[in-house]
Design brief:
20% strand, 381 residues
């Protein structure tokens, strides 16, 4: 019996509408990813996808006649047609994975390779587009495979024949079965196909949800950096130390006495440090950033005992400085004072040496050989 639908016509309609649905999915996905897209870009993408899938059209023209002449029920022919579309989608999904058709904007943070996610996502979108194209033209596709009748059935009749159970009585026999043939229940393969299609379809919103989660994680890190940037970074503090100018002398090979000015660094003999950490929570939109303050108190004693190679007469006590180093000036919330030998002094920015860091505070102090030997107490907050 002559069929008014041809392989090329079915292949062309499936090819066209698959490209249409795939373009719609892609455009909606880019809009969800907050890309700046124009309508003209959607049309351009449809043209590129339509022309790029020309090998798929050729493959359908080649294999559709084989499915058409295969002697089996229409269910099996439709299933075989969908299997053909599935295998046609595989090389395109692999190509989409390599080209990163859906780039890192969808997969920002994941332990799964981006190529595999792109390939899986492309496969789901492509095959779902092909299934929707077949469903859209289901009456024509069903009539093409129905070699025993030229009547184009309605969607309701087609779905009833495809998905309803049949009994062994003649009254409930399918209209397209041969006389005397006992129809069987729906094929397990058909049910498996439907289940697989639903799984692939559900992968699409799952990947969008995954994208939303990863986007929130990245945004949270950006908020933490933004809020923390107005505060100091992790601080490294030193204990107070004394810097005392010293003139060292030595005799060179010619017998001349050479004087070299240097600085002596003196650490406290005793030091007690007490501190407490005060957490603060700063809200920013839906995120909360935890920041910390510290309240640190130091007290100790400088009691200087000079080694034998130090000439005390060359020690310049008058220009001694008490110093304190830290990592970041932004961490200082108020002026820092030190009580040095009963005298309250204000520390100012700048260090005469960088042995304990390049950033710090210092203040000139009154030190004599007698007070240095007896011990100079200090406290600072």
């Amino acid at each position: 019996m002559k069929n008014k639908y041809t392989s090329s016509g079915i292949a062309l309609s499936t090819w066209f509408y698959t490209a249409v649905f795939f373009s719609i999915f892609f455009f909606v996905g880019m809009l969800v990813a907050e890309e700046q897209l124009r309508t003209g870009m959607a049309l351009l993408f449809f043209i590129l996808s339509f022309l790029g899938s020309l090998p798929a059209f050729i493959a359908m023209i080649v294999f559709l006649p084989a499915i058409y002449f295969f002697k089996c029920k229409i269910k099996i022919k439709l299933f075989s047609f969908l299997v053909l579309l599935f295998f046609i989608c595989i090389p395109y999904s692999i190509l989409g994975g390599y080209l990163k058709l859906f780039p890192d904007r969808f997969f920002k943070i994941t332990s799964i390779p981006v190529f595999f996610l792109n390939m899986l996502f492309c496969m789901a979108v492509l095959f779902m587009s092909a299934v929707l194209a077949v469903l859209l033209k289901l009456r024509q596709v069903f009539a093409y495979f129905n070699t025993e009748s030229e009547t184009v059935l309605s969607y309701k009749d087609i779905l009833r024949q495809l998905f309803t159970h049949t009994s062994k009585t003649k009254n409930n026999m399918e209209t397209y079965n041969k006389p005397g043939h006992t129809p069987q229940r729906n094929s397990i393969l058909i049910k498996g196909l439907i289940t697989g299609s639903l799984i692939l379809f559900m992968l699409i919103p799952t990947l969008f949800i995954n994208n939303l989660i990863t986007e929130r994680e990245v945004r949270q890190k950006e908020v933490v950096r933004e809020v923390s940037g107005k505060w100091a970074a992790a601080q490294t503090l030193s204990a107070p130390f004394l810097v005392v100018p010293y003139t060292d002398t030595f005799t060179n090979s010619e017998g001349k006495v050479i004087a070299i000015k240097t600085k002596l660094l003196l650490l406290a003999n005793e030091l007690n440090v007490n501190g407490k950490i005060i957490p603060e929570q700063r809200p920013r939109s839906i995120y909360k950033v935890l920041l910390y303050k510290t309240d640190i108190g130091m007290q100790g004693i400088f009691k200087i005992s000079w080694p034998a190679d130090i000439v005390q007469a060359n020690v310049d006590y008058a220009n001694a400085k008490l110093c304190f180093s830290l990592s970041d000036f932004k961490g200082i919330e108020e002026e820092i004072y030190v009580n040095f030998n009963g005298e309250k002094l204000l520390l100012s920015p700048g260090l005469p040496v960088n042995d304990f860091g390049d950033v710090g505070l210092s203040v000139p102090v009154n030190v004599t050989s007698a007070t240095a030997l007896a011990g100079i107490p200090f406290t600072m907050q």
